[in-house]
Fold:
Amino acid sequence: MSAPMCITDVLSRHKTKWWEWMGVLAALGTPIVFSSHAMMVNEIAVTALFAVALDLILGYSGIVSLGHAAFFGWGAYSAGLFAKHVHNDPLMGLLFSVISSGFIGLACSFTVLRGSDLTRLMVTLGVSLIGFELANRLSDLTGGADGLQGVLMGPVLGVFEFDLSGQVACTYSVGIVFLVMILLRRLVHSPFGASLMAIRDNRLRAMAVGLSVSKSLVVIYCISAAVAGLSGALLAQTTAFASLDVFSFERSADVMLMLVIGGVGWLYGGVLGAIVFKLIQDQLSSLTPQYWMFWIGLLLVVLVLVGRERLLNPFKGWRSR
Structure:
């Protein structure tokens, strides 16, 4: 009975739930419903994809990182430089950013496989700082502290020109994020995704049953780096600008906060966390520009002390009693 039950459980988890279909309809309708806030929706979509990229290694693989902005920044600058010096087609720039970020992730993956979590934190943070300094020093290529300017993107699919209101940029970003989420959903519900969660829960036991731990972690780290580079490329293309801020520690810390809010090890946790974080930031920064981070900190404290499940379903504990 155990084997059929396990197969049924895997198939049921892979099936698309009704609330996922509702989320798909809401995501596709966002550029139309919130057309007056197109740039805000575009920023949320880009940030959500970055948070999902981090969750692939943190929530599904157990790799802690404080410098994932290195790949985000690499994707942003590579897309901008590709548009300036090679070709201004957005999709070609995205492809170049994804491939180059994946190779950078491959080079960095071997450094995070060794040592403890503290070692990984320091190594990933160091990689991000190296990217920051390279972008700052190579001012003839990147613009240095002034940022990469003069990025002119061509029309999407050769038809849709980027407009000042951000409507095309918003639709473009949401569409790319939607397609990537479909691919990532299939990935995390595949046997490879199950092996990653086994490695995360108990690496020694995963090795004992024959899983190739190092190979699996290298592959998911490359995928995570490629997705992070894709999100950075979307930011550079839709804003026609890339600055040193894309490599900053604050960007890595913010996306970590989003995962705390939305939940790790859950593909939609990064999306939910990005929406909540950006909406709170937008509203509170207009009310209390100097102290809005206080309220973010208070929310995190409440989440830790009370628990996300009890906040989302306050009557759960009462019903169980």
Q: What stands out?
A: The radius of gyration is 20 Å.
